[in-house]
Amino acid sequence: MRARLFVMAVALVPGACMIGPSAGNFQPATGPAGITVQIATRRTPKLAGELLEVRDTALLVLSEGVVQLAPFGAIRTARFQNYGLLDFGNAKTPSASDRDDMRRLARFPSGLTPELLRTLLQASGQTEPKLVP
């Protein structure tokens, strides 16, 4: 009987273990900010900042107070905090599924309205996003 209880207890332990980030330590779940992303492009070694928006053709990132637009065609890799690495390889655009996954990590998962973008750019002293080469 004790052996059977021991086996059942051991069998239940893995189910009690959590895999992946919890809401308590997952940045987008604990505040209004998007997740931190580190982007390596074909010309620049690293751009790090907050993921603001995922567009069909680019990532919009706030890095050191500057709103920057990183076109997918220029990105080699993008590493998302607590999420992992997306290697673009030779692809010009990530799959629709990958873009949807990235959108859920952004500060504005539904996208920025023109008014919000204008306000964000004004707060950064910009008229348009800086294009990442």
Main beta sheet: 7 strands, mixed
SSE ordering = HHEEEEEEHHE
Radius of gyration: 19 Å
Q: Strands of the biggest beta sheet: in what spatial order? A: 6-5-1-2-3-4-7
CATH architecture grouping: Roll
Low-pLDDT ranges: 18-30
Q: What is the fold-level CATH name, i.e. the topology?
A: SH3 type barrels
Number of DSSP strands? Answer: 7
Just give the CATH class. Answer: Mainly Beta
| Binned strand content | 25-35%
Number of helices: 4
Class from helix and strand fractions: alpha+beta
Q: What is the terminal separation in angstroms?
A: 68 Å
Whole-number average pLDDT? 80
Q: Describe it for me?
A:
- The protein has 133 residues and is an alpha+beta fold.
- It has one domain: SH3 type barrels (Roll).
- The protein has four helices and seven strands.
- The protein has helices spanning 2-16, 27-30, 96-103, 114-123; strands spanning 36-41, 47-54, 58-63, 66-71, 75-80, 84-87, 130-131.
- A seven-stranded mixed beta sheet has the order 6-5-1-2-3-4-7.
- The longest helix is centred in the N-terminal third of the chain and has 15 residues, at 2-16.
- It is globular, with a radius of gyration of 19 Å.
- It starts with a helix and ends with a strand.
- Residues 18-30 have low confidence and may be disordered.
